[in-house]
Structure formats: structure tokens, C-alpha cells
Amino acid sequence: MIVEEAIVGRRTVRGFLPDPVPEDLVRRLLEIASRAPSGSNIQPWRVAVVTGEALRALSADLLAEHDREADPRPDYDYYPARWRSPYLDRRRECGWGLYSTVGVARGDRAAAHRQRARNHTFYGAPVAVFVSIDRDMGRGSLLDAGMFVQNLLIAARAHGLESCPQVAVVSYPDVVRRRLAIPETEMLVCGVGLGRIDPDEPANTLRTSRVPVETFATFHR
Ligand SMILES: Cc1cc2nc3c(=O)[nH]c(=O)nc-3n(C[C@H](O)[C@H](O)[C@H](O)COP(=O)(O)O)c2cc1C
Q1: Strands of the 46-51 sheet, one edge to the other
Q2: Ligand 1 in contact with 190 (CB < 6 A)?
Q3: Segment 9-27, tens digit of pLDDT
Q4: How many whole angstroms from 161 Cα to the centroid of ligand 1?
Q5: Beta-strand relationship, 46-51 and 162-166
Q6: Residue 146 beta carbon below 6 angstroms from any ligand 1 atom
Q7: What string of H, E and C letters represents the secondary structure of 50-82?
Q8: Which ligand 1 atom is at minimum distance from the Cα of 207?
Q9: From the CB of 115, is ligand 1 less than 6 Å away?
Q10: What is the pLDDT of residues 93-143, one digit of tens each?
Q11: Could you report the per-residue pLDDT of 58-85, keeping only the tens digit for each?
């Protein structure tokens, strides 16, 4: 697969087939992802791969938190404290776009809650990857971790796998830390679901837009 097609054709998948992914392949994908650049080559990413019974147990714990509507306690602010235009508009477009594919009507809080709950089972993905960094690192390490994650998403495609990067699954980091023996000294950055796409999942018909280059770039000649 050429690089451009691998990048442009990637999309977030929210419905996976249960077919297992061989551990050797996951290992290979992590090896490829670790070719990501990082400042001074410090390679700050740390990864926990979760499958099988361990994934079922973790999902059950996360779902329990979600269902009792526990307050999210993420290790860092992924989103702004106060939403404003144009980000709020884009966020709404994304959310409503997703809900319309799966038939969640505006204002139907129960249905929205059920759809969000699907995050915690990784939308059925057979492999969940958690990415963390040591808390005492600089903010730049988040950038390095992001490059690692993007490499992972793209590398997966070359092997017939799709992905779902997820911040929802680090809403209750203590639950993840406890199940995966991740020390308090690490902060959870995000999760990634990996697997084969379920072609019959309505959520997978979603195609997100991008603003034109002129909107975010300036050229100085
Ligand atoms: C770090 C990160 C966290 C995300 N968290 C979630 C999530 O928790 N749940 C979800 O369904 N999608 C999540 N997404 C997917 C975004 O909604 C998606 O990337 C965006 O709408 C653009 O769509 P595309 O990936 O299909 O191009 C996340 C994406 C990123 C990069």
C-alpha cells in the first residue's frame, strides 16, 4: 500500500470483527511504530497490549464506571476546559455525524450513553493497546507518543487491520492502572483498538471532513 493511500484511507473504525490478531503481528506493528521520531530519540512511549480474558475483564470494569456515570478523571487535559468556535462546531459535526449513522436522535441521552459505552469494549476490537508516558517527562513527550500512535494506525493498514484511537478509555485511569499493573508514575495517554473492520457496522459508514489547507496554513514567500 503506498503511503498516501495508507494515510488518506485511514479512518476511525467503531465496529470490529472478533477475529484474533496474532501476537507476533502486534509485536511487529509496535516495532514499526517505534520508528517514530522523538526529540533526542528518547522514545518516551510505553505500551500495554491487552487481549482475550484480560481485555474482557478490563472492559467490564470500565463499563461499570461508565454505567454508574463516574466522573472522568483523566491523567491530563486532552480537551480544552472551555469549548469555543471553531473547535466546538467541528466537535458537534463529528458527534452528530456519528450519531446519525447509528440512529441516535438528538436529545436521546440514553441512546447516546449506550453508544459511548461501546468505547469501553473497544467497539469489539480483539486487541487494545494502551499508550502511556512517564509523568515527569515534558509536554513534548505527548507529541512523540502521538507520532508513535499515528505510525501504529498506519502500519496496521498494511496488514489488513483498522484502528480506533480512543481517549474515552483513559477516562478512568486508575481502573486501567490496576488491571494492567501500570505504576502511578506513568500517565495514560490514550488507547487504540485494533482489528479487522466489521463491514456491516453502521458506524463505519461515517466519513469525516477536513477544513481546507487555506484555513489552517499560511504561506510566507
Ligand atoms: C487521540 C485520539 C482520541 C480519540 N478518542 C476517541 C474516542 O474516545 N472514541 C471515539 O469513538 N473516537 C475517538 N477518536 C476518533 C476521532 O473522533 C476521529 O479521529 C475524528 O473524528 C476524525 O475521524 P477519522 O479518524 O475517521 O478521520 C479519537 C482520535 C484521536 C486522535
Answers
A1: 46-51, 127-134, 186-195, 162-166
A2: yes
A3: 999 999 999 999 999 999 9
A4: 16
A5: unpaired
A6: no
A7: EEHHHHHHHHHHHHHHHHCCCCCCCCCCCCCCC
A8: 26
A9: no
A10: 999 999 999 999 999 999 999 999 999 999 999 999 999 999 999 999 999
A11: 999 999 999 999 999 999 999 999 999 9
Cα distances from 46 to residues 29, 134, 135, 189, 191, in angstroms, run 14, 8, 12, 10, 12
Distance CA 149, CA 147 (A): 5
Q: How much distance in Å is there from the Cα of 164 to the middle of ligand 1?
A: 7
Look at ligand 1, atom 4, and give the residue with the nearest C-alpha. 166
Minimal-distance CA residue to ligand 1 atom 12? 166
Task: Decide whether any atom of ligand 1 lies within 6 Å of the 147 Cβ.
Answer: no
Q: What is the mean pLDDT of residues 208-219?
A: 98
Dist. CA 173–CA 61, nearest whole Å: 11
Measured in Å, residue 123 CA sits from the centre of ligand 1 at 12
pLDDT of residue 181: 98
pTM metric for this prediction: 0.97
Domains within the chain, CATH numbers bracketed: 3-75+119-207 (3.40.109.10)
Q: Is 205 in the pocket of ligand 1 (CB under 6 A)?
A: no
Separation CA 84–CA 89 (nearest Å) = 8
How many Å apart are CA 191 and CA 175, to the nearest integer?
13
pLDDT of the residue at 1 = 64
What number of H helices and E strands is found in the chain?
Answer: 8, 4
Judged against a pLDDT cut of 80, whether residue 218 lies above it is answered with yes
